[in-house]
Amino acid sequence: MRGIGEKNKALTGDRPSCQASIGRTFHRREEEFRQMRFSTGFFWVAFVAFVLTSGCATRVRRPAGSDPAIEMERREQLKLSLSLLLERQVRAWKVGNRIRRAGANLCANDVRYTFGFFAVDRQTFGKEYREIAGEIGLESGVRIWEVLPEFQSPETELKRGDEILEIDGEAVWDLRSFERAIQGPFEIGQLRMKLRRTPGDEIFVHLDGALACDYRAGVVEKDGVNAFADGKNVFLTTGMMRFVDSDDELALVLGHEFAHNRLGHLRQMRAQMLAGLLVDLAVAVFAGVDTGGLFTQLARIPFSEEFEAEADYVGLYFAARAGYDIYMAPNFWRRMAVEHPGSIRENMMATHPSTPERAVGLQKSIAEIEAKRIDDQPVIPEFK
Ligand SMILES: [Zn+2]
Asked: Which of 43, 175, 277, 319 is the most exposed, having the fewest neighbouring CB atoms within 10 Å of its CB?
């Protein structure tokens, strides 16, 4: 489980990418800077001309909206927006949780217990969301927001809105204290909580955990169709949440990103880029040539395509083990290709396989999983 409203990372770009973006340095020559200064000057002249002439552009007398009406609409829009964000967070968490549990024995030592509930602290949101959170039922304190039915029992029934007061006797007052207190239960699989459901009321619950891969999934508010793994967490953009047609497709994306974490790709990529950076520095120091980070970038290319293909393969196993429909996986990449035709072409400098390569690779993996199911073999990837 994870609270929402983690610091949003700057995630940009329309092509799906998986490793955390590592900044590129653009070196401009002096004349390019001069050109830029000229363009900036031109922009301001055009802007002032626009402002001077645009004053006479209105032609009609519109009915004026009153300030209270605008304020009411603003709050309504914020409420809808926060509800949608929470809904998307919960969806990513739910699908992710199912994959994490079903894939626990693929995750080696990267496992912890989960207790099947999603907690929220409204203080982690921006000021505007905090102001209206109470109106959608999100009160202050750390609150239970969603519970998986398989973790519920008549003795330990959790409800949306329950305030978490204590974990194993340790006080909880915000998301940070909650995260701190729950580390022990994550390790041992037993959780005792003191909750408040109604004012003055206190409830004690005891939950048994289920083992799961220790990779959290969350949503960041960005429009590009993207997903990222940072070695521990997985981030999906709102653009990706809109793009996925079904939970099966969402499971495919999450499985892929979990696989990056499981296979330690980011760590390896960083090591390669560090080696490239050392070459860049050596060339700069000994040959006096500024490479503009060329070797740092080149160092990631030979392996990143392999990493992506590996993550597609292991990710499909993650989705299959959790019972999601994997047969639509090639079609997902077909849809991605239609939206992003640039990804259809092969490119020597690309860090991702082309979409046709991915679709065909996934078809082969589907056949492999199908054969294992028919032979009643464990659905486990072929690790070297
Ligand atoms: Zn990837």
From this structure: 43
Distance 232 CA to ligand 1 centre (A): 14
Which of 161, 184, 213 is the last residue in one of the domains? Answer: 213
pTM: 0.78
Query: Do 209 and 245 lie in a common domain?
Result: no
Query: How many angstroms separate the alpha carbon of residue 262 from the centre of ligand 1?
Result: 12
Q: How many domains does the chain have?
A: 2
Q: How far, in Å, is the centroid of ligand 1 from the Cα of 18? A: 4
Whether residue 310 sits in one domain with residue 254: yes
Structure confidence by residue, pLDDT tens digits, 161-211: 999 999 999 999 999 999 999 999 999 999 999 999 998 889 999 999 999
Angstrom distance (rounded) from CA 118 to CA 106: 24
**Cα–ligand 1 centroid distance for 120 (angstroms):** 28
Nearest to 86 by CA among 5, 151, 9, 8: 5
- 315-360 confidence digits (pLDDT tens): 999 999 999 999 999 999 888 888 776 666 554 445 567 788 888 9
What are the structure tokens assigned to 375, written together? 């032979």
Q: 48 lies in a domain?
A: no
How far apart are the CA of 307 and the centre of ligand 1, in A?
Answer: 7
Sheet with 227-229: list strands edge to edge: 216-220, 233-237, 227-229
